[in-house]
Amino acid sequence: MLEEVGVVMDKSTWSFSWMLATQGISFWINILMLIIILFWVLSIIWVAKDIMARSNRLSLQVLSVFLVTFFSPIVWLPIYRVIRPIGFMRDRLPWREAAVMNLVVCYNCGTLNPKEHECCLACGEALKIKCKQCGKDYPHSYGYCHFCGAPNID
Ligand SMILES: [Zn+2]
Ligand SMILES: [Zn+2]
Question: How much distance in Å is there from the Cα of 108 to the middle of ligand 2?
Answer without folding.
Answer: 22
